[in-house]
Amino acid sequence: MQSEYLKTFLLESPDVEERYKTKLGLINNVDPFTLNIRDLDNSIHGVPPVTNMDIVSYLVLTSYYTKEQMKCYKSLQWYKYLESGLIVDVGTKEVNGFFVLLGKVKHSLRPKAKPLEVWCIITKDEAISTAHCTCMAGSAEVCSHVGALLFAAEYANRRREEASCTDVLNAWMMPSGSSNI
Fold first, then answer.
1. In this structure, is residue 169 part of a structural domain?
2. Ramachandran region of residue 177, left (φ > 0), alpha (ψ -120 to 50) or beta?
3. Is the pLDDT of residue 21 over 60?
4. How far apart are CA 73 and CA 67, in angstroms?
5. Strands 128-133 vs 116-123: parallel, antiparallel or unpaired
6. Is residue 39 part of a domain?
7. Looking at the 3D structure of the chain, how many domains does it have?
8. What's 30-71 look like in SS3?
9. Residue 7: is its pLDDT beyond 90?
10. What is the average pLDDT across 101-120?
11. Does a structural domain hold residue 178?
């Protein structure tokens, strides 16, 4: 099934449409923009195992970001999206042995505008295969919105791994001399 987004490529940009369809070939031609949000795993346990190094490798090797820019990441736009809580409706679905990570990024200066839609395809061994965003630069596969979604996934993974003792049910020792409370 084709999304409305893909149908616009048929009329406007045949070369971008071809690249988009190539990306979809990884996941049996399922267009992530046609997935229903109710069918996605929105839990922290469904987040694909993405690490900081995987993201930096993807962003640096496939885009205009440099290693020096990544070192001062707090000045980058994707970090500002993440820090401001502009990433919403994040979910995952497993398709054809890949994780499809979807999300929306709200506009920082136009809060009532329709959020941009972003998806990333991630392999089981944490490699980021490709991504797409509905912004003007999104067909190039790397933009600040893609970076924001990927780092949101990395942040969720870190939070899951660093759960405090109060985040875990009954993580304390039982008092001596008592069998049940």
1. no
2. left
3. yes
4. 10
5. antiparallel
6. yes
7. 1
8. CCHHHCCHHHCECCHHHCCCCCHHHHHHHHHHCCCCCHHHHH
9. no
10. 91
11. no
Alpha helices (H) in the chain, listed in sequence order = 4-12, 14-25, 52-61, 67-71, 77-83, 144-161
CA–CA distance, 88 with 104 (Å, rounded to integer) = 5
**pTM for this model (two decimals):** 0.79
Phi-psi region of 43 (alpha: psi -120 to 50; beta: other; left: phi over 0): beta
Nearest to 91 by CA among 51, 72, 119, 112: 119
Q: Which two tokens stand for residue 123?
A: 């392999």
The DSSP output letter for 99 is: E
Residues above pLDDT 90, as percent of the chain: 31
Tell me the residue range of the domain where 41 lies.
Answer: 4-161
pLDDT at 171 over 50: no
Is 11 a domain residue?
Answer: yes
